[in-house]
Amino acid sequence: MDTHTLPSTPSTPTVARFDTKIAVLLREDLAPWQRLNVTAFLVSGLGTAVPELIGEPYADADGTAYLPMFRQPVLVFEGGGELLTSAHARALSRSLPVAVFTAELFGTGNDRDNRAAVRAVPTAGLDLVGLALHGPRNAVDKVLKGARMHP
Question: CA-to-CA distance for 59 and 44, rounded, in angstroms?
Fold first, then answer.
């Protein structure tokens, strides 16, 4: 089970505490449009690799159906290039599921070229602009040590 629900009282709503964390780490020098683009691409990888993160479909009062989304919040952090490199290494050493976005992907236009651009560079040489990961809260916190919440 990946959530713990705290009991609600008339004055406090029910709050979910998750044993796991979904996090995105962005390089701090990205333009606003790049931050949004990178975040969207990165979290799509987690949804496919860890299907239990996805909740049930939504529907409004009229019965119009909507796609399911993550069952828990996605926390977005930022930091410098060196932090991204060290966080990437820590995530890999803990065998956490990781999605990466490199600077080269801003110059490609399709999935095949994106994968080829990443494949062309050794792990230690990746020019990371973002990464997304999921795992136990304490492990993700250790991976992201030194990062700050995105404003």
Answer: 21
3-state secondary structure of 34: helix
CATH number at residue 119: 3.40.1490.10
- Within 8 A by CB and 6+ apart from 81, the residues are 27, 127, 128
Q: Quote the domain boundaries for residue 74.
A: 3-7+15-149
C-alpha span between 104 and 114 (Å, rounded): 8
Helix or strand holding residue 35 (H, E)? helix 32-49
Segments of 14-86 assigned E as strands: 15-18, 20-27, 58-59, 65-66, 74-79
Kindly give the pairing relationship between strand 65-66 and strand 128-136. unpaired
82-137, pLDDT tens digit by residue? 999 999 999 999 999 999 999 999 999 899 999 999 999 999 999 999 999 999 99
